[in-house]
Amino acid sequence: MEDNTLTNASIVTGMSVVDDAKQHLNDNAQKACTQFEVQSLNDSDALALASSHQRNIHHRNVILVGRSRAGKSMLLEVLKDPFQVAPPVSFYAQTKEPFVRSLLVSHCKSVAKAHKKGEPIPRYLVRVVDTPGLFERRANAEDGSQSSGDDDAWKESARSNAEIRKLVFSLVQRECREINLICMVCSFEAGVSAEDVRAIEQLVKEFQGANFQFVLLVTRCERKRPAKRKELEAQIRAVPELRTIFGLCENIKESDETSEEKFPTILFSGGVSGDDVARADYKAVTFTLEHVLSMRSALLKFITRQCHRSFPTDRLGSVVQLATDQKQALEQSIAASKEENHQLSQQTAMLQQQLETTKADSAHALSRAAADVEIERKAKAEVAVRLDNIQAEKQQATDEKQALERALEQTTAETGLWRTKAHQRWWYSLA
Fold it and tell me: Quick one: which of 258, 262, 393, 405 has the most CB atoms within 10 Å?
């Protein structure tokens, strides 16, 4: 196994730890290191190149936004030079004013192909806007205590989010005609905090309309292997608050072609630790440098290859104003809806009362109808009984009549027999 003796020997010969680590990168890191050529431009060169209108120059305007102390400035330094050593993490905001840095980026393979064919080299003029962080904290000059832009007691030293937004929009509209990429820079070293969610939600609202090219860029990932970064990405995508925030973005790209969820692309970044360099820890520097190069290459590839769409910066203020107007209109609509709901509630109560009255009247009418039906049923029953009695009486009278007729016939017969006998006796007496 290797130890730090190689590094110590390098230091003795005058080489730095980072220079030593460069010589011992793995193949993937070497490939990432030579994949892009990045040149830092001063303002005059960048302006001349931007105004030259060369067809082989492609423009990319990138805005770095996020919480204070999230690592935005270090990200810009790593884009310029991946071997840049990260300074110690400060508790206070380091970027006081927004500023623009210009980079000229080339794909090394594209350069070789252009040389081979004798064609102009395709290059990308990447203008990166570094901004002060939201929820700004500053150290006070007099007593060294901290201040926050969200704390009314410290407004004179730390600026509010609205003041920072105004500064950023003013610079972006002055320096850039369009936006190609908005990097929401976050550092989730202790997980996704409530302030992280608030910052992301604030940024989504501020850049409403330009949210088709949001990227969530997680910093300080130099010690995370690819598998750990993949696991962290899955954890971030599973945060309900973030899914809700990005789900409301109308134009945001879907995270996966097979998924219906809306979520921005997640990229990672980091820098070589100054503590590792100070300890002359060759292994740690090499380990982190390999990850830094890989993550930087992925970010540059995304900027140059996938950021074709743009959003006019002159619409930023109008978009915010439009969002404010929409919010006011929505509030008025909600108030009108509440009033309408109140009126509907009153009408519903009146209709409910009328319904109850109608139900009571109907129940009473049904009760009376049922009573009338019962009376009619009893009357019919009585009539039926009377008819049965009359029929029985009629049958009885018929039977009695028949009995009387039989008795009469019998009496008549007996009378006729008596007369016959009496006549016979009279004749006998005559004889």
Answer: 262
Query: Are the C-beta atoms of residues 247 and 262 closer than 8 Å to each other?
Result: yes
Residues 6+ positions from 289 with CB-CB distance below 8 Å? 18, 21, 22, 25, 29, 82, 83, 272
Handedness of CA 1, 84, 279, 231 (dihedral sign): negative
Q: How far apart are CA 230 and CA 227, in angstroms?
A: 5
Gap between the Cα atoms of 30 and 108, Å rounded:
13
Exposure class string for 336-362: b at 16+ Cβ within 10 A, else e: eeeeeeeeeeeeeeeeeeeeeeeeeee
Residue 196's Cβ-count burial label (10 Å; 0-12, 13-18, 19+) is buried
Report how far residue 345's alpha carbon sits from residue 323's, in angstroms, rounded to the nearest whole number: 32
Q: What letter represents residue 143's amino acid?
A: D
- Which residues, 6+ apart, have CB-to-CB distance to 189 below 8 Å? 220
Q: In whole angstroms, give the CA distance from residue 304 to residue 181.
A: 10
Report CA 22 to chain centroid distance, whole Å.
43
pLDDT 10s digits, 228-281: 999 999 988 888 888 887 775 544 544 444 344 567 889 999 988 888 888 888
Long-range contact pairs involving 308-311 (C-beta distance under 8 Å, separation at least 24)? 308/180, 309/180, 309/212, 309/213, 310/61, 310/178, 310/179, 310/180, 311/178, 311/179, 311/209, 311/210, 311/212, 311/213
Crossing angle for the helix pair 240-247 and 226-237, to the nearest 10 degrees: 70
Q: What is residue 146's three-state secondary structure?
A: strand
State the Cα–Cα distance between residues 296 and 36, nearest whole angstrom.
Answer: 10
Q: Which residue has the tokens 């990138």?
A: 62
* C-alpha–C-alpha distance, residues 105 and 305, integer Å: 12
Q: What is the predicted pLDDT for the residue at 158? A: 63
Which DSSP string do the residues of 162-212 spell out, in sequence order? Answer: HHHHHHHHHHHHHH-SEESEEEEEE--BTB--HHHHHHHHHHHHHTTT-GG
Residues whose CB is less than 8 angstroms from the CB of residue 103 and which lie 6 or more positions away in sequence, other chains included: 38, 39, 40, 41, 79, 80, 125, 126, 127, 128
8 A C-beta contact, residue 266 and residue 201: no
Region 309-331: mean pLDDT is 68
Span 58-91, pLDDT tens digits: 889 898 888 877 888 888 889 988 888 877 766 5
